[in-house]
Specification:
Strand content: 15-25%
Radius of gyration: 25 Å
Structural class: alpha/beta
Distance between the termini: 63 Å
Largest sheet: 7 strands, mixed
CATH class of the largest domain: Alpha Beta
Helix content: 25-40%
CATH topology of the largest domain: Aldehyde Dehydrogenase, Chain A, domain 1
Bound molecules: nicotinamide-adenine-dinucleotide
CATH architecture of the largest domain: 3-Layer(aba) Sandwich
Number of strands: 24
Number of domains: 2
Number of helices: 16
Length: 510
Amino acid sequence: MTDTMTTTPATAESTTILDHWRAGAPWPGESTRTAPVYDPALGRIRRRVRMATAADVDAVVEDADRAARGWRERSVATRQSVMFRFRELLAARADDLAEILTSEHGKVLADARGEIARGMEVVEFACGIGHLTKGAYTENASTGVDVFTLRQPLGVVGIISPFNFPAMVPLWFFSLAIAAGNAVVLKPSEKDPTAANWMADLFREAGLPDGVLNVVHGDKEAVDALLRHDDVRALSFVGSTPVARYVYETATAHGKRVQAFGGAKNHMLVLPDADLDLVADAAVNAGFGSAGERCMAISVVLAVDAIADDLVARIASRMATVRTGDGRRGCDMGPLITAAHRDRVAGYIDSAREDGATVVVDGRDVVADGDANGFFLGPTLLDHLPVASRAYRDEIFGPILAVVRVAGYEEGVEIVNASPFGNGTAIFTNDGGAARRFQHEVTVGMIGVNVPIPVPVAYHSFGGWKASHFGDAKAYGTHGLDFFTAEKAVTSRWPDPSHRGLDLGFPQHT
Ligand code: NAD
């Protein structure tokens, strides 16, 4: 697949413009507004992307609505076979997609392949849509009366995704939505939008009818149009907490079913009996993988005083071996998404120091293996960070790992539970009783026991608590299926002479 398949040429420079994807083909829409898409490791504009108007969104939703009416009538077997073909194509061309992810997000190639693999799990789960939508049947619930339930698609659903997982997050949502018989309008992040068109084109090749998966590029204007559109029945949003809250409140006020996943600040509690080498490895991997731009990244290590000095030394020595640079050069950690974001993240280092933290490793000193203009910041380690500090309270979303020292288990859990976020958390210990107590007591949606990034597998469901998740349904698994379908209960009786006669009372079972 080449760029020219999904783009129209721009003017003066050689930059291409990424179009929307409407009814199975690139579509420029009416807007003349575009936004730059950077290659973060080079610090250069890679291409531009169209910014949809509300009228563009209306046109795409109208097509999607028409496509949804046809797609819902296609047999389960047909929908499953499209999902199977999509899965096979995705597996065969994963390296092409990984290159796009690395070029626009900056994450290293190995991490990009991991992202695709975790998204593909949900495609595989969705291949079993026949089993998942079977419903239930009760024969003779009342004499001669049968009751059964069935699940049906909703129609057009909107998906609004963040920059940090340009492939995995859309895959988590559109796989089940499409397999269940809906049509999708995806509004990906404008910062790394190409993966969305690439996947839509792959679905076309897999045999998905035109209009079932559409991509509208843009910003708030496009999102607002989706939140308010009468024909959009449900919305899945993933992004920062303030926008998640806004999306949830606005779209529910417009009568939609909404699931909105927000930001995070994930803690890892380390008890003195833990294997400190395992902990140090886990802290570095989960703190700096994807340059800390993961909603399940560990950003705070809660270290019990007795082992804190030892643990900080082990983490710092491992950090010295992490190679920061261009993700195409075999480095461990890539750049941040934009220069502005890199500068914002770096700003927390001085503010943490002013608040009393020790800067053990300063990522601003990094010598990156990449272009001098790349948006690099090396791994940073803060120790003794006070919980009153902005660097503790804010979601930083970058390669800064902070150690907060605690007296023991109780203080650690208190800190975890006082956080407004509740996405993920982990405990590292060899004490099964302490781990069991932790999983019972923390007010967090996803918990790891000696596992730093506890993202559940596709047949469970993903989602946090508190300001990390608005709405009832989690992502994928049975929650995802319920979210993208509506249940009907049918009570049926076939003519039988014994049922003749009038009875105006409320139906009772006989
Ligand atoms: P973001 O909130 O800036 O953007 C997310 C989406 O919303 C994008 O498509 C963007 O175009 C759109 N958007 C941005 N501002 C908007 C506005 N004012 N009105 C309407 N739409 C708007 O998030 P991001 O920077 O792309 O992604 C990083 C954030 O996503 C982090 O906070 C991270 O924790 C969170 N995240 C959460 C999860 C989760 O499952 N909880 C998963 C991945 C990322």
